[in-house]
Write a structure and sequence with these properties.
300 residues; Alpha-Beta Plaits; disordered C terminus
């Protein structure tokens, strides 16, 4: 094999190597200064350029990968911050901002489907003495346990939110009516009133709940009006002592129903146990027929 043939073979091998990505491959010139040596020198130069660009490309790819990782981490942190903005750090429940979103979404769904939305405001009775006697750590534990009990009792039928302090809100999506909502109010009070073990190993804390109940029929009320009415009902319950719930039907809803525009209130005392105890019902102002029927089911 002549020298020329060997150089042509080397060139062919070189081209194959570079094509495979080996930009470090080089051809050995013979010093003949002929066309083949000139070609080999040119190919070596090309390989050097490809190697330099490959290094730049490699650096760019590494930079791009690093940037992608950084963006993913920023997105994760942004999602975490968004969750913190809409959720209560202590209980993990939606906070007031989260409540507003869930309430608006439930009302929009009700307007589209014709279902009702019930709102129950739950304010704990006896929480401050727990804080004062056992400290804030015990108070935090009570709030966490109550939050979990409320969430368990509501299940998939609604959303439990912590509005602040010892006040919670329960949004019932697609409530069948006041009877459905008041049945849930009883269930919530029973769940809340069970003893709560404390971190100090004491006898446990006992709290109860004052609950205000209202209903937006077909989603016809906005969130603020619904919340205001439930808040009034909750304070009605507070005035009657621990362990009550009160029902208020919003004035606007009553006008739509073509009945007297005065506020409807039904107050019901929870029994101490499910097996005994008389229930007393007090009525203030006009009580809607449905509220009267509901009250009739729980008192003589």
């Amino acid at each position: 094999m002549s020298v020329s043939d060997r150089r042509i073979g080397s060139i062919m091998q070189f081209i194959s190597a570079v094509s495979a990505g080996d930009f470090e491959a080089r051809l050995e010139t013979t010093g003949a200064n002929d066309e083949l040596d000139t070609l080999m020198a040119g190919l070596n130069g090309l390989a050097s350029e490809l190697a330099a660009k490959s290094g730049t490309l490699s650096t760019f790819e590494r930079y791009t990968a690093s940037l992608a990782r950084a963006n993913a981490e920023l997105e994760r942190r942004e999602q975490h911050l968004a969750a913190l903005a809409y959720h209560d750090a202590l209980t993990g429940l939606p906070n007031r901002k989260g409540f507003e979103e869930h309430a608006d979404d439930a009302l929009d769904d009700a307007r589209a489907t014709g279902w009702n939305v019930a709102l129950l405001l739950v304010d704990l009775d006896g929480f401050k003495p727990v804080n004062d006697r056992h400290g804030h750590k015990a108070g935090d534990e009570v709030l966490r346990v109550v939050a979990q009990r409320l969430a368990d009792a509501v299940g998939d039928g609604g959303v439990v939110c912590r509005l602040g302090g010892d006040e919670f809100a329960v949004i019932m999506r697609r409530a069948r009516g006041l009877e459905h909502a008041t049945a849930l109010a009883r269930t919530l009070n029973v769940a809340v009133s069970k003893p709560i073990p404390l971190p100090d190993g004491g006898t446990g804390a006992r709290v109860s709940a004052s609950i205000g109940v209202t209903l937006s029929r077909g989603g016809r009320l906005d969130r603020d009006h619904l919340l205001e009415t439930a808040d009034q009902a909750m304070y009605d319950a507070k005035r009657r002592g621990p362990g009550h719930f009160c029902v208020r039907e919003p004035r606007r809803a009553l006008r739509l129903m073509r009945v007297a525009p005065s506020t409807s209130t039904a107050a019901i005392r929870f029994p101490r146990s499910a097996s005994h105890g008389q229930l007393a019902t007090r009525r203030t102002g006009f009580v809607s027929p449905e509220a009267q029927r509901q009250a009739g089911r729980v008192s003589a």
